[in-house]
Amino acid sequence: MLPVVLDQSALKVGLCGAGDGLARRRALLQDAGVVPLMVAADASSVDLQAINVLFVAGLDRSTSKALAERARTRGVLVNVEDVPSYCDFYVPAIVRRGDLLVSVSTSGKAPGLAKLIREWLERRLGLDWDSHVETVSRARAEWRAKGFAPSEVSRRTRDLVAERELLP
Questions:
Q1: What is the CB neighbour count within 10 angstroms for residue 25?
Q2: Average pLDDT over residues 122-134
Q3: pTM value?
Q4: Based on the domain organization, do 153 and 98 belong to the same domain?
Q5: Measured at the alpha carbon of residue 67, what is the angle toward residues 114 and 77, in degrees to the nearest 5?
Q6: What's residue 4's pLDDT?
Q7: Are 14 and 3 part of one and the same domain?
Q8: Does residue 13 or residue 9 have the better pLDDT?
Q9: Residue 109: which domain range?
Q10: Which among 64, 95, 100, 142 is most buried, taking Cβ atoms within 10 Å?
């Protein structure tokens, strides 16, 4: 697996589904600031050329498989919720605190375990982490503006985090 964080402004994301699965994926995308294009389950491969990534949830397996195959013919990366064999990528368990994003993945092999680890992290990373990220970000920008080398910025970041006891 290749872990990446994608800039949603560089992508067109499609969403297709029904019921609770659709609601979960819509919420995931909304939390990331993504407004997906809604895709019909019977969308043609031509219709799918407008997107780069497709999330499918809450559809039966045969419909999901057919849609995923049509999307792939257009080079679209596909995630079908709870069907790893139909996926080009997996959605990790996520803890989001403003700009801080921590993800946990088991490559689709043990999503329940990833969920438990996410819950454990949520208890340890309070809501104040958004302000911690902002503090470190401002300091980093100041150090970079002063021309400090990356190794010095890294050392200063470590010192700031230790001084504020952000990671006990």
A1: 22
A2: 94
A3: 0.84
A4: no
A5: 55
A6: 84
A7: yes
A8: 13
A9: 93-125
A10: 64
Please state, for a pLDDT cut of 90, what percent of the chain lies above it. Answer: 85
Q: Are residues 106 and 141 in the same domain?
A: no
> Do 84 and 100 share a domain, yes or no?
no
Q: Do both 4 and 85 map to the same domain?
A: yes
Q: Each residue of 64-100: pLDDT tens digit? A: 999 999 999 999 999 999 898 999 998 899 999 999 9
SS3 of the chain: the string is CCCCCCCHHHCCEEEEECHHHHHHHHHHHHHCCCCCEECCCCCCCCHHHHCCEEEEECCCHHHHHHHHHHHHCCCCEEEECCCHHHCCCCCCEEEEECCEEEEECCCCCCHHHHHHHHHHHHHHCCCCHHHHHHHHHHHHHHHHHCCCCHHHHHHHHHHHHHHCCCCC
Mean local confidence (pLDDT), 118-137: 95
Which pair of tokens denotes residue 84?
């790893």
In the chain, the number of structural domains is 3
- Clarify whether residues 63 and 120 are in a common domain: no
**One domain, residues 100 and 154:** no
pLDDT at 107: 83
Q: Give me 56's structure tokens.
A: 């499918």
